[in-house]
């Protein structure tokens, strides 16, 4: 429950069979409420009922009953709990204000047996009390998970660094192969030009010449076909390289996308629905409220006379003689028919207008929250959609690469078949040749050797180029991985220092509040009471693999006194007066209240068993504590309650 939402709400408690209470209904306003009365007047029992309404079982059932019940009306909601006496103690059921009352039990319900108060009096481990609400097991799991994610990224980065070192050597080999390929291609073009220039008109029989020329023509055509196939292989390889480049860019973009857990969408949608429903309820409420305000304003302005005339005609609305004498300065209340001063109605209308403005401010705040939640939801949806788009595009690119690789394999097989056919044709030409054809045949043989050399060089070039492209695709992930690693390192720093930060803030809050109250309460010869945080030997907070144990600092409470002669010396908590110890315990609980932001979820703070502190100091203490909770309920004896401001409402009959 958000206590801020109930800032101006009065609350109603209906209690049955709790403590010594038979049945009672108590209404409380925001601010300080004093439960004034002697012992055995159910003041503490009512505080127990408030505790039970929050979801805690720190209560008791009336002696002649098996179970007790408490209902709380707050902020338009009703919370009902039943507490039953069992062999295992008090067991509660129903819907309390809090899902987990741990924080409230420790730092808001400051009754006599409150653990934070008693820890100071008994000299218990103060750090353990402050750190108890921290979910250490979850914190340790989060640290381990972040460390594992960081280690995985570190492994990837190490592998990328290794690739960076290997890349220049491969790029050098690729350049060498490009040069060798160009040289072989140049030599091959020169040989092919010489073959094309040869005059085959030699003195042989027509049949032999025709057969030889046909074979040479086929050989030439086959060579041309093989050259075309080789060019097709090169074109496909270039397309594959471009596709791999595109895939690397898409993969790098996908790796750089922020984390967007899909399950978070359901939580955000639920939050959005709840806030929209709350906004709708408040908007309807403000509309109804404005209707009531407007009607009353019109009534005061003299409109709706038929209503006032009808009310005044009823005998029971005539009122007594005094009302009749003052009728000229009064007006008729349309709700009850009595004559009341216009000022009272106008005052009520003014309060209603203020309440409406505050409700409209709540609507504006909810709208801001809705905008923030909607933006976060949209960001996650956009990220998830982009991730799906990238995954689909990468799959398409992979399919296209696979298709083209298959085409390359077919072309290479075609090229090999053509090479085999060229060899067969060369053998046929060798059988048909004469001395006059030796030069031509030697040129064909030389061209064939150059073709084989070119094929081998191009195959090696393809392999090296593919390896380089894969390396470059991995290296392009470097920046995204570094950014993710930086985020995880920041997360680890936050997780590992969370305990340290809480400890430091707890000591700071205690020391500041204690200094304020010592000055305010003016205890004789107590110069200072302060909490020291003593670091572990390593100076850092360290998680250990024990059951929910975190080794860190320890807290030491110091007392500094001054003698009548003005000498300042250090004393112990055991030598403090009972009043001083009680105040110190309350301030320690307040430090925990502030460190854990208890006011954000718990609207109530309870104070009881303050008899050890004199009345004037109780008044100052209550005024100091009243700054923090929405509702501060204090149980006091009548003589102590007299010292408090008359502005604080009293509850004397429970």
UniProtKB/TrEMBL annotation:
Give the protein family. Answer: Belongs to the Sph1/Sph2 family.
> What are the record keywords, sorted?
Coiled coil
User: Which species is this UniProt entry from?
Assistant: Haloarcula nitratireducens
Q: Which InterPro entries does the protein's record reference?
A: P-loop_NTPase (IPR027417)
Locate the coiled-coil region(s) and give their ranges: 136-285, 356-512
What name has this protein been given in UniProt?
Chromosome segregation protein SMC
Q: Which SUPFAM superfamilies match?
A: P-loop containing nucleoside triphosphate hydrolases (SSF52540)
């Amino acid at each position: 429950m958000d206590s801020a939402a109930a800032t101006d709400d009065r609350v109603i408690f209906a209690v049955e069979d709790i403590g010594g209470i038979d049945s009672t209904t108590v209404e409380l306003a925001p601010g300080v409420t004093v439960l004034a009365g002697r012992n055995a007047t159910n003041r503490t029992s009512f505080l127990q009922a408030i505790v039970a309404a929050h979801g805690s079982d720190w209560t008791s059932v009336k002696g002649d009953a098996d179970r007790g019940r408490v209902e709380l009306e707050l902020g338009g909601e009703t919370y009902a709990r039943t507490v039953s006496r069992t062999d295992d103690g008090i067991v509660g059921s129903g819907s309390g204000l809090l899902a987990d009352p741990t924080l409230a039990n420790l730092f808001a319900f400051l009754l006599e047996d409150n653990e934070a108060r008693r820890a100071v009096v008994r000299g218990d481990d103060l750090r353990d009390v402050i750190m108890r609400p921290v979910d250490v097991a979850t914190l340790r799991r989060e640290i381990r998970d972040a460390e594992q994610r960081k280690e995985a990224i570190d492994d990837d980065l190490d592998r990328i660094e290794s690739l960076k070192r290997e890349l220049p050597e491969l790029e050098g080999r690729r350049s060498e192969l490009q040069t060798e390929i160009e040289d072989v291609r140049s030599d091959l073009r020169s040989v092919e030009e010489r073959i094309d220039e040869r005059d085959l008109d030699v003195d042989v029989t027509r049949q032999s010449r025709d057969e030889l020329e046909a074979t040479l023509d086929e050989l030439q055509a086959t060579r041309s076909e093989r050259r075309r196939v080789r060019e097709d292989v090169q074109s496909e390889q270039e397309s594959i390289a471009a596709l791999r480049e595109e895939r690397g860019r898409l993969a790098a973009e996908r790796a750089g996308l922020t984390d967007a857990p899909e399950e978070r969408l359901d939580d955000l949608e639920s939050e959005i629905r709840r806030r929209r429903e709350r906004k709708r309820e408040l908007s309807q409420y403000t509309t109804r409220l404005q209707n009531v305000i407007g009607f009353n304003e019109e009534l005061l302005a003299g409109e709706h006379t038929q209503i006032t005339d009808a009310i005044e005609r009823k005998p029971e609305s005539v009122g007594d003689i005094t009302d009749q004498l003052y009728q000229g300065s009064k007006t008729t209340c349309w709700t009850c028919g009595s004559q009341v001063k216009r000022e009272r109605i106008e005052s009520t209308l003014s309060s209603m207008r203020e309440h409406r403005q505050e409700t409209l401010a709540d609507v504006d705040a909810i709208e801001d929250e809705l905008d923030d939640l909607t933006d976060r939801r949209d960001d996650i949806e956009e990220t998830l959609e982009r991730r799906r788009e990238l995954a689909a595009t990468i799959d398409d690119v992979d399919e296209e690469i696979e298709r083209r690789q298959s085409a390359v394999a077919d072309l290479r097989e075609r090229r090999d078949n053509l090479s085999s056919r060229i060899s067969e044709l060369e053998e046929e030409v060798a059988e048909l040749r004469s001395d006059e054809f030796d030069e031509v045949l030697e040129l064909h043989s030389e061209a064939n050797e150059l073709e084989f050399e070119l094929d081998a060089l191009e195959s090696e070039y393809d392999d090296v180029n593919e390896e380089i492209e894969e390396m470059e695709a991995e290296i392009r992930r470097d920046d995204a991985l570094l950014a993710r690693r930086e985020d995880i390192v920041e997360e680890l720093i936050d997780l590992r220092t969370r305990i340290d930060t809480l400890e430091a803030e707890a000591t700071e809050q205690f020391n500041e509040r204690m200094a304020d109250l010592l000055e305010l309460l003016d205890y004789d010869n107590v110069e200072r009471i302060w909490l020291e945080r003593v670091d572990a030997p390593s100076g850092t907070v360290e998680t250990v693999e024990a059951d929910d144990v975190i080794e860190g600092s320890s807290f030491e409470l110091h007392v500094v006194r001054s003698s009548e002669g003005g000498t300042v010396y250090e004393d112990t908590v055991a030598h403090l007066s009972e009043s001083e110890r009680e105040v110190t315990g309350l301030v320690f609980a307040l430090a925990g209240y502030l460190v854990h932001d208890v006011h954000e979820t718990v609207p109530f703070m309870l104070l009881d068993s303050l008899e050890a502190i004199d009345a004037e100091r109780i008044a100052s203490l209550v005024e100091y504590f009243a700054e923090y909770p929405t509702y501060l309920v204090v149980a006091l004896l009548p003589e102590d309650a007299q010292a408090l401001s008359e502005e604080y409402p009293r509850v004397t009959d429970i």
